[in-house]
Write a structure and sequence with these properties.
With 237 residues, this protein is mostly helical. It is 72% helix and 2% strand. It is built from twelve helices and two strands. Strands 1-2 form a two-stranded antiparallel sheet. The longest helix has 37 residues.
Length: 237
C-alpha cells in the first residue's frame, strides 16, 4: 500500500490528477484575491478622483464660498453652531431677502447645515483644528466621493461588480454633478444626490431581501434627503 511504501522510505508520487486539482484550486483562490485587490484599488482611485477633481477651483483660485445660496447656507450653519438648533430654527434673518428678511426655520431645508455642523462638532471633539468655513468648503467634495461609493453598490445590486465600477466612475466625473459639488459650492444638491442614491439602494435591498433593517435604512435615507433638498419629489414621483 501507499502507507507501507512511505514507511519503508520509498518515495510516493501523487497522481497527476491530484496535483493538477490542487494547483487549479490554489490558482483559483489567488485569482479571486487578485480580482478583489484590483476592484478595491479601482474603487479607491475613483473615490479619490471624485474628491480631487472638485478641489481645482479652490487650488487654482482661493478658499471661498461660491455664490449667494452657498454663502447663506454657510451663515445659517454658523448660526446653528454658535447659537444651537433652537435659535437656528427661530432665526429671523434680516440680511437675506432684503429688505423684507425671512424666518430661516420655515423657509430652508436644514439638512446640509446640520450635516456640516455635525462634521464640525465631531472633528472638534476629536481635537482637530479646523474652521467651520473649511468644513463647509470641503463638505461637497467629501459627499461626492461618498456618492461614487454608493453608486458602486447600487450598480452591484442592479447587475454585477463591473456595472458598479462603471456607475461609480461615471458619477465621479459627471459634469452636471461636478458643477453642484465643487469645493465651496455649499448648496443642497451636494448632499442631496448622495441621499437620493442611498435611498434607492436601501429601498431595492429592502424589496429584494424583505429585511426590516433595510426598510428602516431606506426610510432614514429618505428622511435625510427630504431635510436636505426640495427635489425629494423626484423620488416619490
Amino acid at each position: 500500500s501507499t502507507a507501507a511504501m512511505a514507511s519503508k522510505g520509498v518515495s510516493v508520487v501523487a497522481p497527476a490528477s491530484t496535483i493538477s486539482l490542487a494547483s487549479i484550486t490554489r490558482m483559483t483562490l489567488s485569482t479571486k484575491q487578485l480580482e478583489l485587490v484590483i476592484r478595491t484599488s479601482c474603487l479607491v482611485c475613483i473615490c479619490v478622483l471624485a474628491f480631487a477633481i472638485r478641489l481645482f477651483s479652490m487650488l487654482r483660485f482661493e478658499s471661498v464660498i461660491h455664490e449667494s445660496d452657498p454663502y447663506f447656507n454657510y451663515r445659517a450653519t454658523m448660526m446653528l453652531v454658535t447659537k444651537g438648533y433652537y435659535e437656528f430654527w427661530n432665526w429671523f434673518d434680516h440680511e437675506s431677502w432684503y429688505p423684507l428678511g425671512h424666518i430661516v426655520g420655515q423657509t430652508v431645508y436644514p439638512g446640509i447645515m446640520v450635516t456640516a455642523a455635525t462634521i464640525y462638532w465631531t472633528l472638534e471633539k476629536l481635537t482637530f483644528m479646523v474652521t467651520l468655513r473649511n468644513v463647509c468648503m470641503l463638505t461637497p467634495p467629501i459627499f461626492a466621493a461618498l456618492t461614487a461609493l454608493v453608486a458602486y453598490f447600487f450598480g452591484c445590486e442592479m447587475r454585477d461588480r463591473r456595472t458598479g465600477l462603471t456607475a461609480a466612475a461615471l458619477m465621479a466625473i459627471c459634469p452636471g454633478y461636478i458643477a453642484r459639488s465643487v469645493a465651496g459650492a455649499f448648496d443642497n444638491e451636494s448632499v442631496a444626490v448622495f441621499a437620493m442614491l442611498l435611498t434607492f439602494l436601501c429601498f431595492i435591498k429592502a424589496v429584494r431581501t424583505g429585511s426590516n433593517l433595510w426598510a428602516a435604512a431606506a426610510a432614514f435615507a429618505y428622511f435625510y434627503m427630504v431635510s436636505a433638498w426640495g427635489g425629494y419629489v423626484f423620488v416619490i414621483n
